[in-house]
Amino acid sequence: MVVAHDFLYQKPSTLLDALKLRAQYGEKCSLLAGGTDLVVNIKERRISPDIVIDIKGIPEFSILEERDGSIFIGSAITFTELIESPLIKSRVPIIAESAHTVASVGVRNRATLVGNICSAVPSLDSAPALLVYKTDVVVESVDGKRIIPIDKWFVAPKKTALQNNEIVLGVLVEIPNSENGTAYMKLGRYSGEDLAQAGVGIMISKNLEYKIAFCAVGPVPRRALKVEAFLNGKEFSSITNELSEIIQSEISPITDIRASKEYRRHMVDVLVERGIKLALSRLQGE
Amino acid sequence: MKHKVVGANVTRVDVKEKVTGAAKYTDDIQPDSFYWGAQIGSNVVSGVLKGVIKNPDFDWSDFVYVDASDIPGENEVESVVSDMPLLATKEIRYWGQPIALLAHRDKHQLEEGLKNIKIEIEENPIYVSTIDESLSLKKEIIPQNIFKKRKIERGDIESGFENAKYVFEDIYYTPHQEQMYIEPNAIISWWEGEKIVVKGSMQCPYYVQASIKTVFHKEDKDVEIIQAYVGGAFGGKEDYPSILGAHAALLAMKANEPVKMVYERAQDISITTKRHPSKTTIKMGFDENHKLTTLQMEFILDGGSYETMSSVILARGMLHAFGPYEIPNVKIDGIIVATNTPPNGAFRGFGAPQSFFATESHIDYCALKMGISPFKLREINFVQRGGSFPTGQLLENDVMIREVYDELLKRVNYPVLRKEIDDFNSLSNTKRRGFGIATFFHGAGFTGSGEVRLASIAGIRLDKNGKVAVLVANTEMGQGAHTVLSQIVAEALELPFDMIYMEEVNTQKVPNSGPTVASRTTMIVGEVLRRACVKMRDAIKYNSLDDYLEKVSQYLGDKESESFFQQHLQPPKIKWDDVNYRGDAYGTYAWAIYGVEIEVDLRSFEVTLKNIISVMDIGEVVHPILASGQIEGGIVQSMGYALYENIIFKNGRFWNADFTNYIIPSIVDIPKMDVSFLNNPYSYGPFGAKGIGELPMNGGAPAVNNAIKDALGIHLTKLPLSPEQIMEAYERDL
Amino acid sequence: MNKITFIINGEKRSIYVEPNDVLLDVLRDKLGLKSPKCGCERGDCGACSVLLNGKSVRSCLVFAIEVDGCEIETVEGISQNGLSVVQEAFIEMNSFQCGFCAPGVVIATTELLRKNSTPTKEEIKEALAGNLCRCTGYTPILEAVEKISHHNKHNSDNTGGTNE
């Protein structure tokens, strides 16, 4: 399939050059990291940028490191790099776990976590992981730096809080200071590289503080604050009717090409229960 | 008789080219200068074509444009019923229906050109997408929306049901299934003077030749069709290349250069042929001993918007619909209806997977209702040696259904397995295991008098150096035909395997040995080849390889080569009445059983395939590894059909036209498989071989359904057997 | 047109490409490397896989202009000094039928075995989860890779034994 649309290509080697281009072209510009979404979107004519800015030449974007109690994941860091990183695995393991469920090796070798959250499709696997940690999206424009908390990042399906003169440098994920257990539960139609029909991220700390986030069961991925409030401080054995009602009030799934809304609703209860049990067993295993 | 080459696992003749990337598939053929061709299709589901407008301000000088007015011969797609236009002129019956063609040397420019063409269609907002919508006559595409009806009758069903102690009825549905060959449809065509050459990904070169002859009013000698490497077909490249080949040849006629047409995946899924959706109403009557006395069935297939070859698919579906049972009173009504969807066509199994889903699911349902084991119910009703099928076909020593059944129970050690499953289920709160079987068969070769009408010719050519070329029009599409046919020739000539090679599949080099369909290549064409080999051995007598080489040299003298041809000989005793559907529908049948062990999650209702055991009688096994490969591949395709595969409609169009949302099994989804063969040689197959290609597709879906029934006690009637459907039935039945 | 320079199958090449040229098309149409196949054009099927700086990628999801300064390996490169162990195993086990997915499977398996010479069945399945095959039911593919893994394990065990 040829790409019928023509565009300019620039691969700046400094952040400043990239920001200038971004300021110049604004919404007519697409940022290219792994390209696994972008190339398909351009091919299938969903977007038609005047310019594509390849950010892989800028050293800052390839940083994956610990910074003052947080982990910085640069915008060009691929899912494979996250899966293989001992730092990620030991400090923020749910990120590695969810990265593992994204597509398949050949896509993960290229696709980036930041690209994933920039696509902001409801089914994105990275979101619940980032939502249960305290995560900031670090963006910059020629006017300066801005920090956007992850729970303010997803605005609507396929829409983020990023302004059209800004570029995401990376995400900063705070390493939880208390001992915790985590789990990412994904419902896929089959075991191959499937998109999530429902996804649940869970973190439980030793003092029974719960963090729970969903994807694919509402217009945007989000924390389930009411569910957390209900669970906090409580021992968990199984989903009660009361808890289920709260869970169901926090989600608004639709019937689409992949699953019915009834089944999605049912499965969120199941995934929450299983995720909590798995996270608890991991917590106790430590 | 002990064979030397037949039965041996020789290395595939094409595997090295395939793993090194050297194999040239159609899109890999790159002439120095050529055009890329594209199709302009309807952008509505139903309507009347008013015109095609090319933007007058656009520079069209380097483009080639074709519409129906350019067709020199008939504007029709040659098929069993040639009711479909090659390019639409007036009536539009489905989204994407071909209207015009465009070509350019540069792919980017071609895209630009396509953007500058506007199709004007007076849209008819009313259309029918499903069998039930079609039957409601919400819109009449053709009178009553019925393309064809057929009937199989035996005995008297009315008195049969009157005298039955138990009667059970239900309705079963199956959806479209897409072949999902990994290589999309692709063809390249060029003209050499008055001769049209078409090379591409296809199963049936002589079908493409017939199509081109009709469209261009050409003679055989002026139409050369060549097979390229085929990246999977499964029936999906049986009839469609007749359309694509003619399209490419039309563009090439005006371009005076080769034209290559390669479908994009979304286009391939959206407009090419698929497995017919079906609706089957089935009613079975049993006497007090659980003997099946009466079967009534209405088997409806969705033909899509034109009839094309649907009638033969209906026929095969009906002729397998009664299952491997002896039933005195039978009435099967087969109907093909019209819908505003692309014409459906061939897909491995050819109607039988649909009817077996209904029959083999229903048998287990009846067993559940009568409170007896589905195993026992089958034992009571299996057709026996000396028994007969409802068409009146007498089955003598050819029936192996009881044997494959007994072998399966032995292989799984059923009493032990049963206990394991029951123990597991009594201990587990979260999961249920189940074991289900399906018993089935497949008639190899064309239905009824089809093979007599085809009158296939195949041959061998003896070259000066003693090598022997196999001359057949049957294509290698992955199934291993070229390896297996070479083995048969090597065996028949008692020559080493490496002295046999395949002639290029090219209508100017090989005779018309018929299409590569209907599980006929090994059994029918293989036997024709074996007989051609006998002719050569009658002409040249030899007793060793050295002797052979010497005798060949003497025999050929100054000649470069000598060919030996043979025409298909219908086995004696086969009688078929096409009008009343009575007699021997197929020369023989391959018999099979699947046992499927599954685990169902009681919360998510996801089904995990744990183990699939297959026992089959396919006569003599020519190449055990390739045969197992056919079965394993077929099992996995049938598991896709059972659990995942589904075409979803939105606004009358196929919505999930990609691999992301049309799910086929991946390596992570496959179960443990145990494939074994019983060997009951067929006297009229080469060295006793029968056809196997389609057989494995027939039994997967009902076996999984029956395993779910065993695990949960629920009765499902619709494919795919999705978690949603299981959840609904489970919660309803609680 | 933009000039890009890269190493393809061990050879340094410079070519001109447009920004919207997709790597798969450039490999096939401009460089004549036909082993990567186009099966879906959107990264789902794995038939177009190539190794980019040693990692398998979907060449249908990469703009050619991005590979400036990179190293690319296709099945033509893997086969240029005779058959690789992976290819030999696939031939021995008759692992493919139509063969259209074969180059992608060879690429994904090569990447896996370079990283991990003794993968388990589960690791093999995960590495090949993105390579769709409609013909074989995957069994002969899986068995061929398992065979290599067993062989490697056996050899390294033996080597370990003699060294100690």
Describe this structure in words.
The complex is a heterotrimer of chains A (286), B (734) and C (164). Chain A is α+β, with helices and mostly antiparallel strands and 286 residues long. Chain A folds into three domains: 8-57, 2-Layer Sandwich (Uridine Diphospho-n-acetylenolpyruvylglucosamine Reductase, domain 2); 59-174, 2-Layer Sandwich (Uridine Diphospho-n-acetylenolpyruvylglucosamine Reductase, domain 3), CATH 3.30.465; 180-285, 2-Layer Sandwich (Enolase-like, domain 1), CATH 3.30.390.50. Chain A has helices at residues 15-25, 38-43, 79-84, 86-91, 93-100, 105-108, 113-119, 126-132, 225-231, 241-250, 261-285; strands at residues 8-10, 29-32, 51-54, 64-67, 70-74, 135-141, 144-149, 154-156, 159-160, 167-174, 180-187, 198-205, 210-215, 222-223. With 734 residues, chain B is an alpha+beta fold. Chain B has three domains: 15-23 and 456-567, Aldehyde oxidase/xanthine dehydrogenase, molybdopterin binding domain (Aldehyde Oxidoreductase, domain 4), CATH 3.30.365; 31-125 and 186-264, Alpha-Beta Complex (Aldehyde Oxidoreductase, domain 3), CATH 3.90.1170.50; 278-446 and 579-733, Aldehyde Oxidoreductase, domain 4. Chain B is built from 20 helices and 27 strands. The longest helix of chain B is centred in the last third of the chain and has 20 residues, at 624-643. The model of chain B has no long low-confidence stretch (mean pLDDT 97). With 164 residues, chain C is an alpha+beta fold. Chain C folds into two domains: 1-76, Ubiquitin-like (UB roll) (Roll); 83-159, DNA polymerase, domain 1 (Orthogonal Bundle), CATH 1.10.150.120. In chain C, α3 (85-92) packs across α6 (139-163). Chain C is globular. In chain C, β3 (49-52) and β4 form a beta hairpin. Chain C has a five-stranded mixed beta sheet with strand order 2-1-5-3-4. Chain C is 41% helix and 15% strand.
Strand order of the largest sheet of chain B: 3-5-1-12-9-10-11
- SS elements, strand count of chain B: 27
Shape of chain B: globular
Number of domains of chain B: 3
Radius of gyration of chain B: 26 Å
Instruction: List the total number of helices of chain C.
Output: 6
